[in-house]
Design a protein that fits this description.
alpha/beta; UDP N-Acetylglucosamine Acyltransferase, domain 1; 15 strands; homotrimer
Amino acid sequence: HHPIFPPPESESETSWVWTQIKAEARRDAESEPALATHLYSTILSHPSLDRSLSFHLANKLSSSTLLSTLLYDLFLLSFSSDPSLVSSAVADLLAVRHRDPACVSFSHCLLNYKGFLACQAQRVAHRLWLQSRLPMALALHSRIADVFAVDIHPAARIGKGVLFDHATGLVVGETAVIGNNVSILHHVTLGGTGKVGGDRHPKIGDGVLIGAGATVLGNVKIGEGAKIGAGSLVLIDVPPRTTAVGNPARLIGGKERPARHE
Amino acid sequence: HHPIFPPPESESETSWVWTQIKAEARRDAESEPALATHLYSTILSHPSLDRSLSFHLANKLSSSTLLSTLLYDLFLLSFSSDPSLVSSAVADLLAVRHRDPACVSFSHCLLNYKGFLACQAQRVAHRLWLQSRLPMALALHSRIADVFAVDIHPAARIGKGVLFDHATGLVVGETAVIGNNVSILHHVTLGGTGKVGGDRHPKIGDGVLIGAGATVLGNVKIGEGAKIGAGSLVLIDVPPRTTAVGNPARLIGGKERPARHE
Amino acid sequence: HHPIFPPPESESETSWVWTQIKAEARRDAESEPALATHLYSTILSHPSLDRSLSFHLANKLSSSTLLSTLLYDLFLLSFSSDPSLVSSAVADLLAVRHRDPACVSFSHCLLNYKGFLACQAQRVAHRLWLQSRLPMALALHSRIADVFAVDIHPAARIGKGVLFDHATGLVVGETAVIGNNVSILHHVTLGGTGKVGGDRHPKIGDGVLIGAGATVLGNVKIGEGAKIGAGSLVLIDVPPRTTAVGNPARLIGGKERPARHE
């Protein structure tokens, strides 16, 4: 379940992952002919990961007034203009495959993980936001929230190698920052306290794990490698490599001598 | 971010808001031509707020067996028969614009806020419920729950000027009542205890604020201007202008001398 | 609200329930002509419950690349090959009608309850999983998670007579088992602790009731007839007919002399 797959040095990581995805899709289409059309249109007919992802996201997020053709162009152009969007997607694919024991293949994640798909679409919305294309960024944000029940403000900054596991109900506010290699379960809120404006949402360090249903409120700092227990309500900073649990959350081991893991 | 915009006395509040919405949509269509078709079909082609809202809700809530044309007629007729539905929508638009720092314009709310859209559709379902048109009210309820992940029973009564912020996962039971100027975050449940039938859900007073993930169960009364903390489990009455936090929730300051805010 | 309706001995339970559903749909189509097309296409045009359910699920779960015709065939074939899928659906219909005071008719549940529909589709996905048709099982799982915001792994085993009330945000992991006559409210997680692989999810006994927003983590055993309070975080076994509440959950009455109900 947790394979190690360093890409051969002669190939880029992206092309290595894309090669795996196509091989998986061919194998699945053979074993399940009823899915062949689906796999052909979403993966096998495309020459590259960015085209496959653009097509799939455009179909998922389109509506009767936001046509899939418009969204397809938007995604394609974003991916080709900013290669870091594609490398972030690849880092996420590797993260999900490594960290989620329920993930059986890269194509499983690419086609079926709403957290993965919402994250890729949000990064495009974030790029539009930075280009001051607010109406388009917010229209995309709205479609992601409707279709995946994942509500990440387009202004929020998200690192690479993130896993939004299950993802339903995830809410991330406008001034939140999520570091690299973060894992966040479903029903998690990175929100504001409602008492202040401006920079008002959590900053999540690299390698943090946030359990299901945790609520982190305010401009608090969750340090590198910290763990937030399921169902916790966190209103305070959490030091690096420290675990916080409970409602309201306390640091395990006490504030003075917090338990550190790893 | 928190503009004050008293409508000029010579115009009604509804027409003033509609004028703003059209001006915003024209500005957005100009700055983002790719959205022009979307903005034209949802806003600019319509002569009034109720027509724009009917069109947008009908498209969002239609399915292969509940056609958008049927829903469009249903919404149009409801809005024209009961002007309080339109004035409630306007009060909600003003509330969202005032209270949510992430809301950038009225048209942003009208087009993109699932909490706003779910609330307008629920008010129409409530009207159908009061007219004993249960099958239609429940079909609409089901579509709102599918499309927005917002599950408000059509019998529930909702006041004016409400903000359902983020809204994903909101569940409101059959005999719940929500007052005017209430703000409710996502993942909030106004539910029953499962121990009694009949009048079994919470009554939320005017101006109450309920934080993300709070669960309020039973026929309890949350007094005017009270605040319920995020992640709280509330099984008791909360006096006016009092804050309740925790699982199970306690009143801050103790039951005898609760802290009162404002 | 809680009618008793033993099917006449001369008829099977399935055909009795189907007769009720058609009578309800005819009555509703007469009282609400605008819904007649919807009711005809989803119920009245079909000769049996499994055909009606297949048609309705296929329409709800189809996408631009997973056609409703393909899903209709898949559901039809599954139901006709495995009659226990149909009898489970009937047991669920009876359970919802008996236990949920907000359910007004069998057809209300069949057409509108996302928890009911997600459960029937998951049982088909589970059958595909057992037949080693993983790509199809996972594609179906993904559509159920997108459309209903209900995320039940296709490997999870679900008994008969279950009620997933409201259902939005329900997450059930790969090795979870849910017994017969279980009632689970919305936002409930039956998840893993993230610390172990393999058999890592909760086992829920017959007749258990799990309140809204409860999180049950790890390979713990929730005994027959136990009750888990809303918003609880359960990391321990709960003995039969015992109530657990709180974050973290404690057994009411203490571990030695837990309060038992009924």
